[in-house]
Design brief:
By secondary structure, the chain is an alpha+beta fold. The protein has 6 helices and 11 strands. Strands 5-6-11-7-8-9-10 form a 7-stranded antiparallel sheet, with no helix packed on it. A two-stranded antiparallel ribbon has the order 1-2. The chain has a two-stranded antiparallel sheet with strand order 3-4. Strand 9 and strand 10 form a beta hairpin. Helix 1 crosses helix 3 and helix 2 packs across helix 3. The protein is elongated, with a radius of gyration of 26 Å.
C-alpha cells in the first residue's frame, strides 16, 4: 500500500470519525483533529488519497468525503480475513499413528464466507450418507446453474421442491442419484429441473 505515514494518518482519522459518528468529517474537522496548520494541507492529502482510490468526493454536498472500496479491501481486509482464520497445526492420521509436528500455517475460510455467491443449507435426511453428508450437517453451496455430471448439486424439481443429490444427465432425462444404497434415484425430465448450486464443503458440529 503506497501511502506515506501522514497520508495513512489522515485516512485513519477519517475512518475513525466515520465509525464513531456515521458520517465523514469536514476539511476543517480534519485539520483540527490532526492539528494541521492549514486547510490547503488537508486538501493536498485528501486529493492524493482520492487519486490513489482510498477516498471519493461528491462535489454537491457539504460533507463530500466517502471511504472508497479500496480502503475496505486493503485497510480492513487483513482484519476481516483474520477473523476467518484458525491455526492449521499439522495433519493427523485416521489410520496408523504418525509423528506429530507443529505447523505454522492457518486455515482461512474467507474464500467461502467472503463470497456473496456462497450460501449454507442444513441437511435433513440420510439420502447422502455414503458421501458422508449426514442429517444435521451444514453444506456450503456455490450459487450456480452449471454443474458437471457426478457433482453434488442443489436441484430444484418442478419449481417447488429442492434436493441435494449427485447429478447425471441421460439424454432428455436427469438422474438425481442419492448416496444411499437403500434409496432409488430420482428421474426428472431435464425441462423440469433447475440447478441452483453445487457443493463446496460440508460442516459438522459435534456439540
Amino acid at each position: 500500500m503506497a501511502l506515506t505515514p501522514r497520508q495513512k494518518e489522515v485516512l485513519d482519522y477519517i475512518a475513525g470519525f466515520v465509525q464513531e459518528r456515521g458520517y465523514c468529517p469536514s476539511f476543517d474537522e480534519i485539520a483540527k483533529g490532526l492539528e494541521l496548520a492549514s486547510l490547503a494541507t488537508v486538501h493536498k492529502h485528501v486529493s492524493i488519497l482520492e487519486s490513489k482510490g482510498y477516498l471519493k468526493r461528491s462535489y454537491n454536498h457539504s460533507r463530500s468525503l466517502e471511504l472508497a472500496p479500496r480502503y475496505f479491501r486493503e485497510m480492513q481486509g487483513s482484519q476481516v480475513e483474520s477473523a476467518y482464520e484458525i491455526p492449521l497445526e499439522g495433519r493427523i492420521a485416521a489410520g496408523a499413528p504418525v509423528e506429530t509436528y507443529e505447523g505454522r500455517q492457518t486455515l482461512n475460510f474467507a474464500d467461502f464466507t467472503g463470497d456473496r455467491d456462497t450460501y449454507a443449507l442444513q441437511v435433513r435426511g440420510e439420502s447422502m450418507i455414503e458421501d458422508h453428508i449426514c442429517d444435521g450437517d451444514y453444506v456450503l453451496i456455490e450459487r450456480t446453474a452449471d454443474a458437471r455430471d457426478g457433482e453434488v448439486v442443489v436441484a430444484l424439481v418442478n419449481g417447488s421442491e429442492t434436493t441435494l443429490k449427485r447429478i447425471y444427465r441421460e439424454g432428455e432425462t436427469v438422474r438425481l442419484q442419492p448416496a444411499n444404497s437403500a434409496m432409488a434415484p430420482i428421474m426428472v425430465p431435464a425441462t423440469d429441473l433447475q440447478v441452483q448450486g453445487r457443493l463446496l464443503a460440508v460442516l459438522r458440529k459435534f456439540r
